[in-house]
Amino acid sequence: MNNATWNRAVDKSFKYFGIACTFLGLILLGIFMVNIFTEGAQRISWQFLTSLPSRLPARAGILTAWTGSLWIFTLTGLIAIPLGISASIWLEEYGKKNPLAQFLEINISNLAGVPSIIYGILGLQIFGRMMNLENSLLAGSFTLALLILPIIIVATREAIRAVPGTIREASYALGASKWQTIWNQVLPASFSSILTGIILALARAVGETAPLIVIGALAYVPFVAQTPMDEFTVLPIQIFNWVSRPQAGFLINAAAGSLVLLCFVFFMNGVAILLRRRAQRNLKW
Amino acid sequence: MTMHSVNGVPRLEARNLSVHYGEKLVLKNITAQIHAHSVTALIGPSGCGKSTFLRLFNRMNDYIEGFKKEGEVLIDGADIYHKSTKIEELRKTVGMVFQKPNPFPKSIFENVAYGLRIRGVNDKNILGETVERSLKQAALWDEVKDDLKKSALALSGGQQQRLCIARALAVEPSVILMDEPASALDPISTSKIEDLIYQLKSKYTILLVTHNMHQAGRVSDKTGFFYLGDLIEFGDTEQIFTNPKQKQTENYISGRFG
């Protein structure tokens, strides 16, 4: 075998190896999806969505869980979005040459990599105990808001940075102040990308389990939360709870709950992709 | 500020002006006077400091890291780098058009109305009149009058640049700075911009940076030749192009370097 044939052979085999790697993950995910679908789809019904937890698998439902997830989604968004966007604006537009901002920048990237259970411990101590929020929705939302804040900040900063400097110059040259430029030009131009980042971050928050278990959301909650100060449970915790039961019926319930959670997360990701597409189509600088 | 020069006070003036970016000296002891209702072309090879000089008059250099200025920059005899200068007011008087058309990703109407909106003008009639007047002045009205709600990004490059001129005119400046306004445009759009500059001269004082010798010759009354941060020669355009006093000017204009 001469050199060229050898190179071609290596080239080809690497190509197939790459294809195999790509499909391995997708196939495994596919098998998993088919599995929970065949087990869970039969269980999904109006009764399942509107029933409270029960010790009988056939009567149990996910009403408390999905309303809890909705609460968490909303409250976490309300806390994390304004904080995240404001922090990004300061870091990107005001703190550029500030050594403090540079120090914070490194640490925000680090925070994005901290395991979520650590956030749970932090949340338990600060929100649960020191602020006396105990195991309420508010404590959970604050904790998850902290968890997704770095993700939102990184995404928002990227979106703000993608707005060309020429737009800022044009605004300044017409006599706009810095804040007017940010409010009227930079934020509207980066809005779609910022929203994409926020949605992905919130989808992550809705899927989180560990930090909420740490702050005490694992408790049996037989009612639908009415105020942010109520105890709660969320879908992933409900699933976790059912999976650890011995009865086969609860495993089916868990599969059905997973299906609902997956649908929700896929839906959110779909919206994010659509928004990103729209942003790219509308803005060709 | 008045539109006309009072008692021979020049509209724009630089006195013993030097500029540093960090350690680098980019303008060396420049003194020049520019009178009202004229077009002054600033020419010279890339990096000679002409854009820096232009951007001194609306303080756009303030955003550049390491920017340091000695000497004075005056408009109607007043130092615009004085502590009491309000930058928003200065930029209402001194408009600017950039090298690359940079419309906002908004509608044509909102692009032109922006300068008024940020000053709190929201009256529909005033905005409508101003947009129409400005677009007419920028010779763009006939092309876009039925599409004012369309995105400005859908316009051609030449139209975008005239939109940027209209946007600058909307706040009624009396000085307009143009930084190579036609360098990114095709010949037809370029000639439209040049016609426009020529028409605007009767109402405005225009400072124009250009790399195009013919353009400088066609539209300007005065020409300043910059080289390596020095203002080598400044005078009537005709004299600069036909009978330059300095050897360097002659070499540059005849295309021997730059």
Mind explaining what this structure looks like?
The complex is a heterodimer of chains A (285) and B (258). Chain A has a single domain, classed as MetI-like (MetI-like fold, Orthogonal Bundle), CATH 1.10.3720.10. Helices cover 76% and strands 0% of the residues of chain A. Chain A starts with a helix and ends with a helix. Chain A has 285 residues and is an all-alpha fold. In chain A, helix 3 (63-94) runs parallel beside helix 6 (137-161) and helix 5 (116-130) packs across helix 6. With 258 residues, chain B is an alpha/beta fold. In chain B, 34% of the residues lie in helices and 25% in strands. Chain B contains 10 helices and 10 strands. Chain B has helices at 50-56, 87-93, 108-117, 124-137, 141-144, 157-169, 187-200, 213-219, 237-242, 247-253; strands at residues 12-21, 24-34, 39-43, 67-75, 78-79, 94-97, 175-179, 205-209, 222-227, 230-236. In chain B, the strands form 2 sheets. A 6-stranded mixed beta sheet of chain B has the order 6-7-8-3-9-10, sandwiched between helices. Chain B is globular and about 55 Å long. The chains are: A mainly alpha (285), B alpha/beta (258). The A-B interface holds A 97, 164, 166-167, 169-177, 180, 184-185, 188-189, 282-285 and B 58, 60, 63, 65, 87-92, 95-96, 98, 100, 102-106, 114-115, 117-119, 151, 153, 164, 167-168, 171.
